[in-house]
Design a protein that fits this description.
Number of domains: 2
Radius of gyration: 24 Å
CATH topology of the largest domain: BirA Bifunctional Protein, domain 2
Structural class: alpha+beta
CATH class of the largest domain: Alpha Beta
Distance between the termini: 23 Å
CATH superfamily of the largest domain: Bira Bifunctional Protein, Domain 2
Strand content: 25-35%
Shape: globular
Number of helices: 13
Largest sheet: 9 strands, mixed
Helix content: 25-40%
CATH architecture of the largest domain: 2-Layer Sandwich
Length: 450
């Protein structure tokens, strides 16, 4: 994309309402615009990153054997009355009536909807196990929406629901989700620590939150520092292998890691003192097993091998896709702007033409741009006729991992300047070598289509 043809309304000054780093930089980098309290328009670059995160989540869910679908954002209150949650959910639920006086609500979560689909179409144990999921907009009427997309009222979320014949099968689904989430977050350049958590209004006995460590996190967390040394890496996982998934779960959850809601001081004291850590964390996902809570109240049952009708065991599993943008920025930035991990960057490389009116510079930049497009990479070419200072400032603000600077002096020597945004280190090399180096870096970060 040529910047002269793109819509990227960057700002030099920080808006007064932005209180945390991610909110400031998302506004200044032209990623979002507030529509009303806690509700945002996603501008082109913000929307581009949102879609990259969505694709990664889809890929890892499908890899784990889960089936995508899409539910409506407006739900009938009757389903929620059937489950017993309509009156108890609280004022965060946005309630309304349609023109016929029927009670409706804007989906804050979708357990009832998925259970209703399941009970209408699945009758036999032979159709199990089954996990359905969606990535869809949700709405919770927060009393004090703040921190931009980190605590908005409208948010983009993956929510999945497993249906299993037995508790043992459902707990394998729980373990399988935990494993798939570890891979998902690492692909996004994040270390999200699974921590024993409180189930809240969802209910259930088993639940882990995934938290990214950041100073602006809403939750106080207590953990054994050894857990931050764990990496999922490129390990091959057979998601149908119960023992393998259980082993990964135990590896990543056997060390102490709790939110403030479930913290036990006596247990934490057993961690060697030099490994005890207290920090802040940002929740980016949560998994639950809640047994037959919804299936019993809503009649979601199947016929087992002996012909008996039995309620299915269920769990739900969420990832805050829009919230992830804020979490990534909170975890990866400096005083100049965002620093995107390669796996989620809106553009793979920035090309800066330092003298737009110089024919040689323009030809070299055009050639670089075409070379990247030819190998399937997505460059952002700053072809504007503006000063060097503005170009460098904008490129640092939007945080592309790599930048190629093209100027008359370098071209005379047959080189361009390749700069790493994270380290600030620059290196001069021929343009073809720069293209090859960037190509190799991104070879392992490609997000394929569905």
């Amino acid at each position: 994309m040529r910047l002269s043809r793109y819509f990227l309304p960057t700002m030099k000054e920080t808006p007064s309402e932005a209180q945390i780093v991610s909110h400031r930089y998302m506004l200044r980098a032209g990623m979002i615009k507030q529509s009303s309290a806690g509700i945002y328009s996603w501008l082109p670059m913000g929307f581009k990153v949102l879609r990259k995160l969505e694709n990664i989540v889809h890929e890892e869910q499908i890899r784990a054997g889960h089936v995508p679908m899409l539910m409506p954002t407006l739900q009938s209150a009757d389903l929620w009355r059937e489950s017993g949650r309509y009156d108890g959910y609280g004022e965060e639920m946005l309630r309304m009536q349609d023109r016929h006086g029927r009670d409706m609500l804007f989906s804050p979560t979708a357990e009832e909807m998925f259970t209703d689909v399941f009970r209408a179409h699945v009758n036999s144990y032979k159709d199990l196990p089954l996990t359905l999921y969606q990535i869809q907009w949700k709405f919770r009427d927060e009393i004090r929406p703040r921190f931009g997309v980190m605590r908005g009222r409208e948010f983009f979320m993956k929510d999945g629901y497993n249906f299993d014949l037995t508790k043992e099968d459902a707990l394998h689904a729980y373990n399988r989700h935990l494993v798939s989430y570890l891979r998902t977050y690492e692909r996004m350049g994040l270390q999200a620590i699974p921590m024993r958590a409180d189930s809240g209004p969802i209910g259930g006995d088993y639940t882990h939150e995934f938290l990214v460590l950041a100073e602006t996190g809403e939750s106080e967390v207590f953990y054994d520092s050894q857990i931050t040394d764990l990496k999922f890496g490129d390990r091959a996982i057979d998601y149908d292998d119960v023992a393998q998934c259980q082993a990964v779960l135990e590896e990543f959850t056997s060390r102490y890691a709790r939110t403030d809601e479930t913290h036990e001081a006596d247990e934490f004291a057993k961690v060697p003192e030099d490994r005890q850590r207290v920090a802040r964390g940002i929740e980016v996902g949560q998994i639950f097993y809640f047994g037959t809570q919804y299936s019993e109240s809503m009649g979601a049952s199947v016929q087992d091998s002996e012909g008996n009708k039995v309620p299915v065991h269920m769990g739900s599993h969420g990832i805050g896709v829009s919230r992830l943008l804020g979490a990534i920025i909170e975890a990866s930035h400096d005083d100049k702007g965002i620093i995107w991990p390669e796996g989620v960057t809106p553009f793979h490389v920035g090309i800066l033409n330092m003298r737009a009116k110089d024919e040689a510079c323009t030809e070299a930049c055009d050639a670089l741009y075409d070379s990247f497009k030819a190998i399937g990479l997505d460059p952002l070419y700053d072809d504007r006729d503006t000063g060097a200072g503005a170009k460098f400032a904008d490129m640092d603000l939007i945080g592309l991992p790599w930048r190629i600077t093209v100027g008359p002096r370098g071209l005379k020597n047959g080189v361009v300047e390749l700069t790493c945004r994270r380290t600030g280190e620059s290196e001069e090399m021929p343009d073809a070598q720069a293209v090859e180096k960037i190509s190799q870096i991104y070879a392992k970060h490609r997000v394929t289509g569905l």
